[in-house]
Automatic annotation (TrEMBL):
Gene3D superfamilies: 3.30.420.40. Residues 259-443 form the Carbohydrate kinase FGGY C-terminal domain. Residues 6-248 form the Carbohydrate kinase FGGY N-terminal domain. Keywords: Kinase, Phosphoprotein, Transferase. It comes from Listeria fleischmannii FSL S10-1203. GO terms for molecular function: kinase activity; phosphotransferase activity, alcohol group as acceptor. GO terms for biological process: carbohydrate metabolic process. The keyword Phosphoprotein applies. This is Gluconate kinase. Pfam families: FGGY_C (PF02782), FGGY_N (PF00370). Belongs to the FGGY kinase family.
Length: 503
């Protein structure tokens, strides 16, 4: 009798439930979308109860569509976006929304802490860059910005911990997500005392850290019915979305690099040791026992390309959200967009600059530039920024695996090969995080000895760098990086001016 495993990926704009068989083949999937609540002051929040409802609905819809017997579902495992924070009271009710990685309101509090403390020591111990995205920074901010809530909170958790609490009544966090909090000493495997002292928080107000393969069971009859599963269904806690993407894509060899572009983007390399960067350009997070991921996440991935489409694409492309045509039109524009460079920092930036002061800009603009050139420049800008992250971890002999919806576009894959000067491979699935979660469940239940999927190393397409284009992009990338660095000071002045005008 076949057994099935479900990976549930709790993301920034949607929750996806994906059902796999024992071989890792996808059976069916369902996504529930929700809103990211933002404003001009840097807010980027979600309703945690809306996400809990999305998790239940996604699971129910997959069970309904697959029509498998409840007893054939061996386990459900979770992937989740990193860096979320929710304060809850003693009854588990939210005192705040779920504050996401994209929220930048902690910027000023973090800058003050940089003046008062040696925060690089926190980075060196936790592997989490010093940036407003981290729960560490958010807690620094909330301590002063919302003292009443801070004083009365019972628990400070992330969105996955909240979902698990709603299901099982216990506060837990996997070590992978804990390692991305800025509060957890990844090498020693415990909460970092110096970080807790800075945010004024005791360890009993944080979820208990467990293994990524920790199992839970014993749903209420009501909850099981809402999800269309058996009460006895095993839930595996799982890990973070970025780390699990590497696992699901089977990119775990020393020279395997993944480039994922969804709403945001990331460059990651799997390693067997914890290692931070001397220049603080990259993160190092835990995946599971003996495995870590090193690299950098960017705020401006698919969202920047979507923005360019809305601003510059023809009406039919915008109305139909026709990314195939968007990419085709961009491919017809000469390399370098006729001297137009786009710095894609519409949402501030994480790697490699780790600052919310950086801003987007078009450089080299002349009266002769046309909308298609703006679009190509925007796509090139996203790729050039990813190349800046890759520079911090890249080695000769690396092979790049691409994932995310954008991996379906040959123009993007070819562009990335040229800009990174590496062979680019398109893998068998774009659901890397969900499959990675399912693999954790398989290993947790003893269904496989390791995370290898025999027969699942199939590559859909391979793109090799073109020497002449590589040379041209290498020169353009130098200009891109110089502009990004030199304009940061000006952008900081502009940010301060904006704040003063609003007062």
């Amino acid at each position: 009798m076949s057994e099935f495993f479900m990976g549930v990926d709790i993301g920034t704009t949607s929750t996806k439930a994906v059902l796999f068989d024992e071989s890792g083949s996808q059976i069916t999937r369902y996504a529930v979308h929700y809103e990211l609540l933002t404003d001009v002051l840097g807010k980027a929040e979600q309703n945690p109860d809306e996400i809990f409802q999305a998790v239940k609905k996604a699971i129910w819809m997959v069970m309904k569509a697959s029509q498998i017997d409840q007893t054939d579902l061996a386990a459900i495992s979770f992937s989740a976006a990193m860096h979320s924070l929710i304060l809850t009271d003693k009854n588990g009710e939210p005192l705040t929304k779920s504050i996401t990685w994209a929220d930048s309101r902690s910027s000023e509090a973090l800058e003050k802490a940089k003046r008062d403390f040696y925060l690089e020591g926190i980075y060196e111990k936790t592997g989490t860059p010093i940036h407003p995205m981290s729960p560490f920074a958010k807690l620094l901010w909330l301590k002063d910005a919302a003292p009443e809530k801070y004083a009365t909170m019972h628990m400070a958790s992330g969105i996955k911990s909240y979902v698990l609490y709603k299901m099982f009544g216990t506060w837990l966090i996997d070590a992978a997500l804990a390692s991305a909090s800025g509060l957890y000493n990844t090498e020693e495997g415990c909460y970092e005392k110096s970080a807790l002292e800075m945010v004024g928080l005791s360890q009993d107000k944080l979820p208990t850290v467990v293994s990524e393969m920790h199992q839970l069971s014993g749903l209420s009859t009501e909850l099981a019915a809402e999800m269309g599963i058996a009460k006895e269904t095993i839930f595996v806690v799982g890990a973070s979305d970025g780390a699990l993407a590497n696992l699901g894509l089977q990119a775990t060899a020393p020279n395997d690099v993944t480039v994922t572009v969804g709403t945001s983007g990331a460059v990651r390399k799997t390693t067997n040791h914890f290692q931070t960067d001397g220049r603080s350009r990259t993160f190092c997070y835990r995946l599971t026992d003996g495995l870590y991921v090193q690299g950098g996440a960017v705020n401006n991935g698919g969202k920047a390309i979507e923005w360019a489409m809305e601003q510059f694409a023809p009406l039919d492309v915008r109305e139909n959200r026709d990314y195939d045509k968007l990419m085709q039109n961009a491919s017809e524009i000469p390399l370098g967009s006729n001297g137009l460079i786009f710095l894609p920092y519409l949402l501030g930036e994480r790697a490699p600059y780790w600052t919310s002061d950086i801003k987007a800009a078009f450089l080299g603009l002349t009266i002769s530039h046309t909308p298609p050139e703006f679009i190509r420049a925007s796509i090139e800008g996203v790729a050039l920024n990813l190349a800046s992250v890759y520079t911090a971890i890249g080695e000769k002999g690396d092979v790049v695996y691409v994932s995310g919806g954008i991996a379906a576009h040959p123009f993007w894959c070819s562009l990335l090969a040229d800009i990174l000067n590496r062979e680019v491979r398109v893998t068998h699935t774009i659901e890397g995080s969900s499959l990675g979660a399912a693999l954790l469940a398989m290993k947790s239940l003893g269904k496989r000895a390791d995370f290898t999927l025999p027969g699942k190393s199939d590559i859909k397409a391979i793109y090799k760098p073109n020497p002449s284009r590589v040379k041209a992009y290498a020169e353009l990338h130098k200009i891109f990086e110089l502009a990004s660095i030199q304009l940061t000071g000006i952008n900081k002045q502009l940010t301060n001016w904006q704040k003063n005008v609003r007062k």
